[in-house]
Amino acid sequence: MTARLRIENLSKVFAENPRPALEMLRAGAGKAAVLEALGQVVGLDDVSFDVPSGAIYMVMGLSGSGKSTLARCINRLNEPSAGRILLDGQDLCALDEAGLRAIRRSRVSMVFQHFALLPNRRVIDNVEFGLKLRGVPPPQRRRRAEEMLHIVGLARWGHHRPHELSGGMRQRVGLARALATDADVLIMDEAFSALDPLIRTEMQDELLRLQRTLNKTILFITHDFQEALKLGTRIAVMAEGRVVREGTPQSIVLEPGSDYVAAFTREVDRARLFDARSVMAALATILRGQDRIVVGDASGEPGPGFLLDGEARVLGALSAAEVERARAGGPKPEPDGAFTCVPAGAKLVEVAGRYRPGEPIGVVDEAGRLVGLLGAREILARIAAGGSHD
Ligand SMILES: Nc1ncnc2c1ncn2[C@@H]1O[C@H](COP(=O)(O)OP(=O)(O)OP(=O)(O)O)[C@@H](O)[C@H]1O
Ligand SMILES: [Mg+2]
């Protein structure tokens, strides 16, 4: 995957002349020290990360950590003090007014927490708004807006005014408006934060569903770690204007790296976060015949194994005793027990539901090839809070 959006050493100091503050930051001072010494607020301090094309990239942090400042810098609603913002390699910080307007209209769309709909215009006019600015002819933009309202489930609401809609519905209008522009990068700043929990969950599911077909590049800002885990391809955790941890949801929960990040991970439902691939034991080939392969746990510990065909697809399970006989160079083993296979991407909650005492679980890839082994021990160790995996 290539980086559609790259943030490079981005800093923002809210000051007429940011130089002295930037020097302090470079020398290792933090936001508090700069405020103390210069009376200036640091919004961002040397922030760098890559947003891969097609990702939902989450920026997560407590209030005041700099999330909105980051979003506003990308759209240049805030002027960065240092660093670069590259969209497909083009530095947005170097654009003039006209260039910037063009990018805002056609490449980067924003969805805010508080809808920002035009109250006196009908819903359909609101959705059309960005297209109108771009000079798209009326019939065309009407068709496009109707299509987007349909996608977000508001096909019959186009002729109502925003105040006739609930908060959740208004947020959908905001989303439809952002999608209508055809921008391939969406920046969503706390877009679901004002919604009540049920509607919010619905909108999250909706976004995941939409993203499967639209394949936009989304930078999604939230103060909710659960939301970050649910939606995120990757997550950047921010504190005091800095990125303190960056990685995939599973890797961040597994290795928070600091007490600050660990505190967010405590309440996480690990069974719904981690998948079979993340806990499976590696395989070792024990015997390889012409078209049959015997595999067991790579650690060499006694345990069940599998008999595979020449393409590594599962023919059957082997008991620990059969595997031992094969290890000792005994005769060709025969499958002798029941087993279960799960996809590598299956969440542990699902895997646990299919677990049968005494039966080995094989983990298979998309092509049906065995890629790992699972037992109750692996599953339970990972689900246990604290998440230590040894
Ligand atoms: N226009 C401004 N002038 C001065 N300081 C500002 C300005 N905008 C933001 N800040 C400061 O920058 C820091 C980061 O603010 P920002 O709005 O980016 O936080 P946030 O992470 O979005 O918080 P929240 O979750 O509350 O939305 C804060 O210390 C804030 O006081
Ligand atoms: Mg904010």
Automatic annotation (TrEMBL):
Tagged with keyword Isomerase: no
Keyword field contains ATP-binding: yes
Pfam families reported in the protein's UniProt record: ABC_tran
Keywords: ATP-binding, Nucleotide-binding
SMART domains per UniProt: AAA
Family per similarity comment: Belongs to the ABC transporter superfamily.
This protein's name: Glycine betaine transport ATP-binding protein OpuAA
Naturally occurring in which organism (per UniProt): Methylobacterium crusticola
This protein's encoding gene: opuAA
